[in-house]
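Margin note from the TA: students keep mixing up input and output lines. Inputs are the sequences; the output is the structure of the whole complex. Example:
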Amino acid sequence: MNATIINIGDELLIGQVVNTNASTMARLLTAAGLEVVRTVVVGDNRQDIWDAVDRAMHCSDAVLVTGGLGPTKDDITKHLLCEYFGSELYENAEALDNVKRIFTARGYELTEVNRRQAWVPRCCQVLNNDLGTAPCMWFERDGHVLVSMAGVPFEMEWLMHNRVLPRLQQHFSMGAILNKNILVQGIGESFLSDLIEPWELALPSFIRLAYLPIAGMVKLRLTARGNDVAELQASVSKAVAELYPSAGKYIVGEDCETLPELVAHKLTTMGCTLATAESCTGGTIASRLTALAGASAYYKGGIVAYSNEVKECALGVRHETLATHGAVSEETVREMVEGVRSRLDSDYAIATTGIAGPTGGTPDKPVGTVWVAVCSRTAIVTQLMHHGDRRQQTIDRTVNQAYAMLIRLLCQKD
Amino acid sequence: MNATIINIGDELLIGQVVNTNASTMARLLTAAGLEVVRTVVVGDNRQDIWDAVDRAMHCSDAVLVTGGLGPTKDDITKHLLCEYFGSELYENAEALDNVKRIFTARGYELTEVNRRQAWVPRCCQVLNNDLGTAPCMWFERDGHVLVSMAGVPFEMEWLMHNRVLPRLQQHFSMGAILNKNILVQGIGESFLSDLIEPWELALPSFIRLAYLPIAGMVKLRLTARGNDVAELQASVSKAVAELYPSAGKYIVGEDCETLPELVAHKLTTMGCTLATAESCTGGTIASRLTALAGASAYYKGGIVAYSNEVKECALGVRHETLATHGAVSEETVREMVEGVRSRLDSDYAIATTGIAGPTGGTPDKPVGTVWVAVCSRTAIVTQLMHHGDRRQQTIDRTVNQAYAMLIRLLCQKD
């Protein structure tokens, strides 16, 4: 089964907004077993939308469309789809109830313009959008399916999970699919590939492997297809177990999409707390953890110790340490991580110090030189890295390195 | 002049990578005066690339292609373009020099595979890629232009600025274009639109206005086209000056793309320092500032005071204040901002405390309730906001609100 994604919106074509919908949808469709063959972005323009829809309906089994469903004049998707499928608009009772429910909850009065949101083409099936007023519409023609969804990211994602994907799997009798993520860190993609080649070649034919490299780590994704979920589960578990003898020391976790999720899950489960002391990563380690709901259960706080002065006054790094070894040194990062753990009285701590660049490098410590430390109440681990001369890459890789080191330390505790 | 963007890469179609290239390119092309009418993503698949290229060459004046230019077998863009334009590959001396230069600089030996990067279709013009080994290729046919670039974001962006955009403007005799950004905060888009309608209607016809709303603020972009840059400059300056009487109190700055850039510019120019104390924004204010090179010139550091304990021990918020008024209160945010400013001895400080959600709300202080404070050595400003129940939206809006409040305080000092 293949799929085309069509995202509609002028804001995407002027580059005002990054099209995260396309990647979210592609990720979810791929995980559900559909192959995305094309993503198209067009503006709120009749001819362009029509062409994109018509072409996609000829080439793809499933066409997923977002955007252009607002109640204002420049949102034309619904009218166009109505015409494309040779139908007529009518007021759908279920969609109207949903619009009323949302307006009541927000304490707004329902206007005629908003009521129009409940009008849909007679030929489509309405999939209720619990989070918004624009109904999700499911069209079929000659075995091809077109689904039109709101372009608001959180509405789209909810609809994909709760309405669209289950129905697509049923419609196309796609059987069972099982995805398993394995997070690997501390080895480059090509070395990993060499290392696990015998294992990969021995995988059963119904299990496929994908390498997804992300900022200093690699996510391995196993995708198994078949008819029986329990059998797939057993086969995948066996395959994963067989990976450990060769690659176990690089595996930091399973079943999570990202390292912050894994950190959050482990610390919450263990009932332990974390503090951070960041120099070159400038708050990014904290920011990615606190972006996830529930962070207050384990994250006590942190110090962004960007200047030496703050390393001394807020973390207790000794002046002599900074003077003798420099801010980017093992000695400093040790005092940072111990300082923040004891001052914030947490079970675990992370610290980073380095030269993100583009300036500040020396022959001894070129741009991209970074020290990371993690510690518990009894142990401390430090590591030196060289990340090259691109600032954001250095920050991103350091952040992932730090999470991975912490996870390894947490696992020792298990 | 209209343009189509084609991004090639399997990693985009499985949703592994967010397609930031498309938005960066769209933003740059729009600012240069081209209208982007379509963005297409296809995989490393011959037929799909061919179809996308062929269609775009018929519909658009300019076709911008990224990706598929690596030296390995799955990168097929160059061979396909060679065939599409009926040409043959040859080793280009300038491209080879560039490959050699880059390999020498990185200390790698040049292999036969890497040398292949210097082979290009005879019919194209090579635009040198200073940052990478894949040459940028410029093709022309029947007045239409196709440019093929590396998909690595920083190479693409460098090529767009330094090679592609200047040449496109020359090729299409596009005349002068001038963009001016005005950052507005503290008023919703529709209210702003009403407020400045008379001004907008009075704009000369060669100046266009766009509203670009972003996380609690609006970026107004004026785009002027003509033949004489000095004249455009004068007209745009006049238009901007005329905007101040009606909307001046909401304008936080000009000429920057983002608020962190503006904060960085102002503080660096003034030679002043900043410290941050973040609760609900969890390090995001710090992280977005330190993502920009040169942050150490003005940013001393900050405290991520996620728990009450850290608010007390690291910021000196009084226990009675937290007990009496709660963590999310004007009293607490005042003590946070004063605490971090005095403890880190900075000229200015920012503090945030709120309920990002989804849990933690009360009838009194529902999810989305946030207090922000900014202060100098002599003044302090606080503000209460209600951002609704979406965690990331609350964080993003709070962060922008805090930057805007700081900029206003910095301007008073001017």
